[in-house]
Amino acid sequence: MQQSYADNATFTDPVFIYLDAEKTRTMWEMFCVNGKNLSIEFQNIKADETRGSGEWIATYTFSKSGKRVINHIYSNFSFENGKISEYVDTFNFYKWVKQALGLAGLLLGWTPFIKQKVQQGAMKNLNDYQSRKQAS
Questions:
Q1: 5-47 pLDDT per residue, tens
Q2: Sequence ranges of the domains in the chain
Q3: Contact 112/90 with Cβ under 8 angstroms?
Q4: Which fold has domain 2-135?
Q5: Are 56 and 41 in contact (CB under 8 A)?
Q6: Residue 81 burial by CB count (10 A; 0-12/13-18/19+): exposed, middle or buried?
Q7: How do strand 83-90 and strand 5-12 relate by DSSP bridges?
Q8: What is the pLDDT of residues 55-77, one digit of tens each?
Q9: CA–CA gap between residue 82 and residue 105 (Å, rounded)
Q10: What is d(CA 25, CA 9) in angstroms, rounded to the nearest whole number?
Q11: Are 41 and 54 in contact (CB under 8 A)?
Q12: Angle between helices 112-135 and 93-101 (to 10 degrees)
């Protein structure tokens, strides 16, 4: 999958706001390596030479809480020279955070504060993972 991204690729979703190609590749590696009980289903995949879209359902155990998450994600892609140049995932953040954080997500997941904390925590985890990877 990492070879599918152009060197100038970008990725955005409700948790990772803007990642360059290097961070995107690392994020997917981290997701796959650290994903506990991870399963992924794909559907409604469409693509031509310049654009693509699809849906996927990621089911996994969220590492911070140990709670099971079933996340339905909608993806849109742009392609250049046969590689992904722009990738945007959308999903219902509130539905995700309720599953991932349980009661705290249910009560506070709709607030900008919680969304920002999740985004900051995710970026810290990504940066830490990348640092450990580079050190080894």
A1: 999 999 999 999 999 999 999 999 998 888 789 999 999 999 9
A2: 2-135
A3: no
A4: Nuclear Transport Factor 2; Chain: A, (3.10.450)
A5: yes
A6: exposed
A7: parallel
A8: 999 999 998 899 999 999 999 99
A9: 39
A10: 10
A11: no
A12: 70
